Amino acid sequence: MSLAVSATRMPASRPEQSRGLSCDPARIGSNHGFSLPEVLLVVALIGVIGGVALPQVIEALQRYRLFSAGREVAAQIRSARLAAVTTNRVMIVRFNCPAARQYRFIEVTGNAAIDTDPDRCAFPPADSDPATLPNSDGLPAMLPDTMAFGATQDLQIGPTGLITPLAGGMPALIQVTNGTITGQITVSATGRVQMQ
Predict the structure, then answer these.
(1) How far apart are the first and last CA of the chain?
(2) In what order do the strands lie in the sheet with 181-187?
(3) Are 91 and 97 a contacting pair, CB within 8 Å?
(4) Spacing of C-alpha 5 from chain mean position
(5) Cα 8 from chain centroid?
(6) How many CA atoms lie within 13 A of 16 on its CB side?
(7) Is the peptide bond before 171 cis (omega within 30 degrees of 0)?
(8) CB atoms < 10 A from the CB of 73, how many?
(9) Partners of 178 in beta bridges
(10) Cα torsion for 183, 185, 186, 190, to the nearest 10°?
């Protein structure tokens, strides 16, 4: 048995068609990219939009960081109140203690030599002997580098949870600043702590 193969010749195509080129005048120039003026216009628009939005983004980040730091201060005040109630002891929340930007709650021992010691905020947070005071000092905390306390009122918290400022009236106010932005923490006598 024999197989016969017939070869069919394909018509030759034009070289312009095989490469996707066309001589149609309506299609000439439709395959080119962006021109230099178009690219420069887009870059200029991006620059203008970025220039307008960048300061607002930076301010929003500063406000977010300030609010986060304020929440940490509020948490320290709440922790001091909880420690005062659970241990049935008087606690004091001190700001800029032992150094600027630091804050801490400490237990009032009743011993003037300990309570008024200038290095009291630098004492270890707790000792191993429950018979000697202080036993309930909180851990020192610190504001971030770009922040500082503005006007502050050290707070005394009684065993019942009532809060009184050591100076000034109620509600107690604690200011935290981040550059030109200032936040305020308001503390009521009953222990309500709000960041504004």
Answers:
(1) 99
(2) 147-149, 172-178, 181-187, 193-195
(3) no
(4) 80
(5) 76
(6) 4
(7) yes
(8) 23
(9) 147, 181
(10) 170
Q: Which pair of tokens denotes residue 139?
A: 């851990």
3-state secondary structure of 103: strand
Q: Give the number of residues written for the chain.
A: 196
pTM: 0.70
**One digit per residue, pLDDT tens: the chain, 196 residues?**
455 555 555 555 555 555 555 555 555 555 667 888 888 888 888 888 878 878 888 888 888 888 888 899 999 999 999 999 998 999 999 998 888 899 999 888 888 888 888 888 888 776 667 777 888 888 888 998 889 998 888 999 999 999 999 888 888 999 998 888 888 999 999 888 888 8
CA distance 63 to 61: 5
For 120-148, give one letter per residue: b (16+ CB within 10 A) or e.
Answer: bbebeeeeeeeeebbbbbbebbebeeebe
